[in-house]
Amino acid sequence: MAVADFVPGVDRLALSDPSIGLATVIASARVSGGSTILDLRPGSSVTILGRTGDVSRWFG
Fold first, then answer.
1. Which of 16, 25, 19, 20 is nearest to 58 (CA)?
2. Residue-wise over 7-30: b if at least 16 C-beta within 10 A, else e?
3. Domain residue limits, the chain
4. How far apart, in whole angstroms, are the C-alpha atoms of residue 55 and residue 33?
5. Phi first, then psi: what are they for 11, rounded to 5°?
6. CA 55 to CA 46: how far, in whole Å?
7. Could you tell me where the beta strands, DSSP code E, fall in 1-60?
8. Residue 2's CB: how many other CB atoms inside 10 A?
9. Which of 18, 24, 45, 48 could form a disulfide with 36 if both were Cys (CB 3.0 to 4.6 A apart)?
């Protein structure tokens, strides 16, 4: 899954599945080609297109 229009400081990410640990998702963050990839679980990730930075501030 990819998110194309995320604006840090304006938008927030949220996890609706209680089996996914927020700390684990934040720790998985990696940058590739100017975008941030977050692993939700094995084989499942979300890419925040064109955004990098303090991922922990993106959740709320």
1. 25
2. ebeeeebeeeeeeeeeeebeeebe
3. 2-10+19-55
4. 16
5. -90, 160
6. 13
7. 2-3, 30-32, 35-41, 44-48
8. 11
9. 48
41: β partners: 44
Per-residue pLDDT of the chain (60 residues; tens, 9 = 90+): 999 999 999 999 999 999 999 999 999 999 999 999 999 999 999 999 999 999 999 998
Give the Cα separation of 37 and 51 in Å (integer): 10
Contact (CB, 8 A) for 59 and 11: no
Q: Which of 15, 60, 59 is nearest to 41 (CA)?
A: 15
Per-residue confidence (pLDDT) for residue 34, from 0 to 100: 97
- To 5 degrees, how large is the angle CA 42–CA 48–CA 49? 125
